[in-house]
């Protein structure tokens, strides 16, 4: 059986990366490619690397076009998917024949209306099933509950890329009760493609090359409530997570390196072998058993994540260690923001929702040098 997949926002970075994966997917056929201002142009004008789709004409993002498909991937700016979703639901009011919807934007990630209105300042569109298969639930040691939810849904919200890096870095320690969530500090080095294609002075080469630029400093970044939501799902008490989050744009096109610092809990501090206890929690969640995560690699001790090793892939590398002098734990994660951070997560979730092998069409090998 083959499913047809339309991609709305096909000319953007996220849409292009979704298409790169879908062209290699053996079970799907790429259908309509849509956009707003670039409708009527060739896809090759925007993504010349997608040779097999280069001559396809970009269509307008209209519900009537998208509704003809089995799956619709929404790679649209924040706030844009709600209207399209509503229009699609009007075309199939009873749900019959409605496509599986996968939103790469933020519109349906947050379960709290108050958090949405505080950080996004627009009308709340409601939460969809969260598209992070590896998300831990309530102290789980092996992430399975989220996969069950994804297998049963028709609406998927793909996580934010920074959120993915921070969540994967620390959630095993939160779930195991080894990290104090009340004083988390996350500093991220982020590639420029995470800012999208919009032309802004600080995103030009003249401003970006040779410079590191912090942004959304002081607790203003929109990914903060989503990270808190995930860590509470993993086992942190409601209201106990306090996160200082500082992203920094660095001169690379793709990639995120997240460094998260957290105080140790008494359970970890008083363990007979704190280092072994700490690593066991990450091993249980991601590790080397037959049920381990194929897209998350816990690195050998003493080896730290780098963005170069995951470039172009849908994998994440993680590492954790104790800083005894600071009475803290350092957890790190590297991902490709367009890969595991966006498009690979979308395709991974699509596979689960369609009953396919989870890693179908996910690139697991990085690009080097």
The fold-level CATH name of the largest domain is: Dihydrodipicolinate Reductase, domain 2
Strand content: 15-25%
**Helical proportion?**
25-40%
**Overall pLDDT level:** 94
What gross morphology would you assign? Answer: globular
**N- to C-terminal distance:** 38 Å
What is the H/E order? EHEEHEHEHEHEHEHEHEEHHEEEH
CATH class division of the largest domain: Alpha Beta
Q: What characterizes the major β-sheet?
A: 7 strands, parallel
Q: How large, in whole angstroms, is the Cα Rg?
A: 20 Å
Task: Please tell me the CATH architecture of the largest domain by its name.
Answer: 2-Layer Sandwich
Secondary structure tally: strands: 14
Unreliable spans: none
CATH superfamily (homologous) name of the largest domain: Dihydrodipicolinate Reductase, domain 2
Oligomer: single chain
Structural class: alpha/beta
């Amino acid at each position: 059986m083959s499913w047809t997949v339309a991609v709305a926002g096909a000319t953007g970075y996220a849409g292009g990366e979704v298409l790169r994966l879908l062209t290699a997917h053996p079970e799907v056929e790429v259908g309509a490619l849509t956009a707003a201002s670039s409708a009527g142009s060739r896809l090759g004008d925007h993504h010349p690397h997608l040779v097999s789709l280069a001559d396809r004409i970009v269509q307008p993002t209209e519900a009537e076009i998208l509704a003809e498909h089995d799956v619709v991937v929404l790679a649209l700016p924040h706030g844009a998917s709600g209207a399209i979703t509503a229009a699609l639901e009007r075309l199939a009011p009873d749900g019959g024949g409605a496509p599986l919807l996968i939103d790469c934007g933020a519109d349906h990630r947050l379960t709290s209306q108050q958090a949405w209105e505080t950080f996004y300042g627009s009308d709340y569109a409601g939460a969809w099933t969260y598209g992070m298969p590896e998300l831990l639930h309530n102290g789980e040691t092996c992430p399975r509950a989220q996969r069950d939810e994804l297998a049963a849904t028709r609406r998927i919200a793909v996580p934010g890329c920074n959120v993915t890096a921070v969540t994967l870095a620390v959630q095993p320690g939160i779930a195991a009760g080894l990290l104090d969530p009340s004083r988390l500090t996350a500093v991220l080095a982020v590639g420029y493609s995470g800012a999208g294609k919009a032309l802004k002075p600080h995103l030009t080469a003249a401003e970006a090359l040779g410079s590191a630029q912090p942004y959304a400093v002081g607790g203003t970044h929109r990914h903060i409530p989503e990270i808190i939501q995930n860590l509470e799902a993993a086992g942190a008490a409601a209201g106990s997570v306090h996160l200082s989050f500082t992203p920094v744009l660095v001169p690379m096109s793709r990639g995120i390196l997240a460094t998260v610092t957290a105080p140790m809990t008494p359970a970890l501090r008083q363990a007979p072998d704190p280092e072994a206890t700490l690593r066991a929690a990450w091993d249980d969640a991601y590790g080397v058993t037959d049920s381990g995560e194929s897209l998350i690699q816990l690195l050998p001790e003493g080896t730290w994540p780098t963005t170069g090793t995951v470039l172009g892939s849908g994998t994440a590398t993680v590492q954790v260690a104790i800083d005894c002098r600071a009475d803290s734990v350092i957890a790190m994660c590297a991902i490709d923001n367009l890969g595991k951070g966006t498009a690979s997560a979308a395709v991974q979730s699509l596979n689960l929702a369609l009953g396919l092998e989870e890693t179908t069409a996910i690139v697991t090998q990085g690009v080097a040098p």
